[in-house]
Amino acid sequence: MLQTSANSTLGVTFNDATTFNLTANARITVDSYVYEDGGKQNAALFDVARGTVAFVAAAVAKTGDMKISTPTATMGIRGTSGLIEVPEGASATSRNNVAIKLYPDADGKVGRIESMTAPGCGSAFSRKAPAASRYAPGPARASPRCR
Length: 147
Known about the structure:
This protein is mostly beta strands.
């Protein structure tokens, strides 16, 4: 578990170059992380429980299966930069929604975030920039999971 207190921040870089930056009062858990340079079974699952967490996805997201879960959604990260805000009290049954923001990478390319829903909960959203266009980053809201 990675956690910050009221007057602290934390930056973490994993060996595939994925980074997470946590603001004050944030908490994430590394549920799983498997990375082998050139490997075909790379995978990671990070759980953002609360706070604001910025990330830059690297090799695991581009060559494997990277997911970030929150109290209201699980997202497949397909090589991108983003920010996740989990408000205090966010849960599958509360009105406090998680905000997800997608940003262009340093090279100007934009990856993709796919929100996965539970069976019977309707369709998931996928947010990515249109080909050959300029992308204006913006938020998406993750509504509560179905029961």
